[in-house]
UniProtKB/TrEMBL annotation:
<protein>
    <submittedName>
        <fullName>AAA family ATPase</fullName>
    </submittedName>
</protein>
<feature type="region of interest" description="Disordered">
    <location>
        <begin position="1"/>
        <end position="20"/>
    </location>
</feature>
<feature type="domain" description="AAA+ ATPase">
    <location>
        <begin position="168"/>
        <end position="355"/>
    </location>
</feature>
<dbReference type="InterPro" id="IPR027417">
    <property type="entry name" value="P-loop_NTPase"/>
</dbReference>
<dbReference type="InterPro" id="IPR003593">
    <property type="entry name" value="AAA+_ATPase"/>
</dbReference>
Amino acid sequence: MQYSPEQNRQDVAIPLDPRMPMAPASLEETGLESSFLLRLAAKCAAEQDTITASHLADRMKLPKVLANILIKELVKLALLEARGLAGEDVRSDIRYALSANGLEYARAASRQSQYVGPAPVSLDAFCRQVSLQSIHDERVTPERLIESLEGLVLSDSLVEKLGPAMNSGRSILLYGPPGNGKTSIAERTSQLFRQTIFVPHAIEVGGHVISFFDEAVHQPIAGADAKPYPKADQRWIECRRPVVKTGGELTLDLLDLTFNDGPNVYEAPVHLKASGGVFIIDDFGRQQVAPQSLINRWIVPLERGYDFLTLHTGKKFKVPFDELVVFSTNIAPKDLSDEAGLRRLKYKIFVNNPSRDEYIQIFKSYAGGAAIDVSDIDLNHFYDRKYHGTMLASCYHPKYILDFVGSYCEFNGMPKVASLDMLERAWEGVFTLE
């Protein structure tokens, strides 16, 4: 939908995107307790000598009318004092400063939680928003799949299997010999989804704050692609669907809340940050924890679409599990999990070694990109010499071989030509000889 100047009026009630969270019109509509908001406002006021309603609204990402309500309540409680106008214009905002009691109130609030910044959203609001922007609602077309896989040499049969799996928004297991593009395929899923989603700065659960927005994960929409709208809830950031990739470092602890006992703030686990996007587990089976244990941890999320997290107080709460989960492994599925666990991985796709034609196509593509000349005759002779018996071609071989050729020729001041002799030299320099 196109943005028009008329939509910049303050009285417009129809958002650009029906999924866009609307700004709260009252403290009750924030989904947060007034006492929580007052403590947060006091901590924001303690950041500098004086504060105005405009500054507080910007800091807490709330409408100015709500910032004024919070300021009036703090003044009423003798925690905040007026210090005159912020400027010479009589229409300027009034400056406020914390009183002695207000400073102690802010310190006490900080001892409870040092979180200062945008007001969090409620858990209920987060769950509703994830449902509104579910990855299951975005259709992946054949054209978009082919576009996202551009540059990868894959068989038609493999692409035909990938399409329905990616479109399902469910779990996928990519397995097969190493070095044949499983990770590359998984990473290309980031290009499949074009819709944006709305991500909160933080979530409030039982008075506790869970930090959610992560610059390493969430990519905000900026510039011409952004959807400016005056009545949008500024506690949410419009972002591209996230893609989170983990590997051997993944442990069961990373799938739970991280409690930072210094500031008394929680950090959302990696799979929760991937909500509405893609979660890639690369090198599945190489983690410090057994793959069966990881699958057992995810049986409920993969099967039911929700997960349970636990605060350090022991309080458990339910969160949505709405993401495309892609497992990539070199290990045979039977060695990863029992049948019950494998049943939770909805799509199991074998990524095989390349055929002769696919290998030669990959080789020529890399050679062209590296400006290395290679003749069809030499390349076919080389293939026949090396790939026979138990020696199978792999998709990564051409790049490794041609990298050696390029480096060797540059070092020796030679033209970049992958002659049969040079290919033999590269083979010996790159691969171990048994």
